[in-house]
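debug: dumping io for the single-chain case to check the tokenizer round-trip. Nothing else runs in this session.
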Amino acid sequence: MQPTLPNHWLRAASFFSCFSPANASGLFHLLAWGWLLVLSIALLIATTVQAQTYYPNGITRAGSPTSGTAANQLDLPHSVFVDGAGYVYVADFRNDRVQKFPPNSTSTTNGSTVAGTGTSGSAPNQLTRPTCVFVDREGYIYVADLSNYRIQKFPPNSTAGTAGSTVAGTGTSGSGANELDGIYGLFVDTGGYIYVTDNNNNRIQKFPPTSTAGTAGSTVAGGPTSGSAANELNSPFGVYVDGADNIYVADSRNNRIQKFPPTSTAGTNGSTVAGGNGVGSDANQLKAPLGVCVDGSGNLLVADFNNHRIQQFPPNSTSSTNGITVAGGYGSAANQLYAPRTVFVKGRDLFVADEYNNRIQQFVAPLSLSTSASPNPTCTPTSIASVTASGGYLGLPSDSYSYTWVAPAGIAITAGGSTSAVSVSANSGVTGVQTLTVTLSDMASNTATATVSLTVGAPPANPSLVAGGTLTCAQTAVTLTATTSSAGSFSYAFAGTGLTSPNPTAGTATVAGNGPYSVTITNLTTGCNSSTTTTVQSNTAPPVVSIGASASGLSCGIPSITLTANVQPGVTVGWDDASSAPTRVVSVSGTYGLSATATNGCSATATSLTIGGIGIPLPAVTMVFNNSATVVAGAGTATITVPGTPGQQFQVLGGSSFEYGSVLDRINGFQITQIFFSDNGIFTIQRGGPFTILVRDGTGCSRTVQGEIVVR
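debug: decoded output
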């Protein structure tokens, strides 16, 4: 049921509130009954909701359709402000207080009083009909204290009863530079300057950061009389200052939004950026606009009080520009408003002081939803992919949303099925592009749906890694070859301690050390990989080689020794005389060497063997005859002429045993040899003729002397 106009409009100047970050509001003061009649008719007309850029259903963040004084109730809220942490501040007009609600509060959430006591008054800790609230970066709370004609500043973390200090106004109404009359809008810029809509003086006053009670302000728009010229205002309510210090004013009785330049003073012309086409509900018209603000994209948002809507105008709009309704339509449902006082932009969300519904409504931009998957492509059947959805809107934590995921056949959601991030795996045999769908829902049942495509590939089949031989002394490097039975293009990553030249594209690698080696084969299209290992063997053991000898040394009894190469079968040998037979006969004392090379190319050298010799040289033979003749007999034949007659003795020296053989005459045609043995070498010449003497020494070495005895 709509309000009875006389009762509402004749209440002590109130009901219209301030702005958004520049919240604006105010009440028509001393309105003519004809004007009231126009407004009353407007209140009875429901406005058609136009195309939305926000979800139509609002979320109640404070208050409820029923007014009251409880901590969770409001009574004609005039303005709303949301700080950086998401706390919601409300100018609770008829409860003479500012209520602070926690982020994401609901209609049942209790607020805490941070300014005023809940009882009207003019003490520093009291408020009488607060119309606007603003919180600066340091947490100071500024309040437009309507009926006390002042701006009160409260410290951060202020509570009910905390004393504020007056930073604008004198406490009494007036039109002087230091006075105010009908405060409905308030804005504090980044430099600390305070902008106030002085409704009944039809002007915007600007006060310095150090302002106190009684400080003179400067007029930066309108004043001192009402009017509809470009440099005039008629009952201004909301004020907003953008980042370039342009000043926007909700010029309510002119049904327009005026924009003034940063250097504006009293008398400066403003430009109409919305409305100004008479009172009405068309897209380019406004009906008592009370709140104004500008969002991060430069869109102008207007609390169109008597059209029960929030109108949005594009950047650089003019009086002829059509706006679109982004929230509202007369009523108390979630998608309706009843006399919106102010609008505040937080990120992409709108907060509206819905005055006659005694509540603060949040309208959110359509849910944004984006998805991603990692790794993507993924592989089957062992790989796990993390699929993530991100979205929503500013001001709500992740637990304010619910997520519903739908996966195609063969894709299993293994964890987090109702959260923003899920883990998925592909069943064996599932390949190609697989599409998952996620639906995001907020607390107001608004939804957004998105898909994410996950490319699933199979790992390379039958990976193989083969070594091209065994490392030996002859083959100091071998080639590893990696293969797969799958078709496609692959990369090969080898690992191992002896890698010398891996080729990641050809699938080969040269290695110079034994031990385990691995390769990871990756499909360049899907990113799927398989790994396998092999072990490179080595055979670098040298042969075992030694020299064997048939005797330990040479002697006259052992004139030669056979040396033998002691090696394993298949090993080749090389003596130090360049011979390569497995045995070698030596007859000369000395040191002998041997080397060996095995089939693996490894070689070794045997310990050298020294062969000694005894009884060499052969004994020297000396024959001494009794006629004083001495003959030194060497090898070969000696002719010895012995004077005298047979029977003469001679002695052979140089040995330890002697054998004398002489040739007798032939008997019966046969030659007879006479053999004589002696240990002292003394022999008697029996007759002349050829003879042999075999002389042996103690080692067994012997020398044979041949000769002929001639008797003279």
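debug: round-trip ok. The helical segments are 5-9, 33-43.
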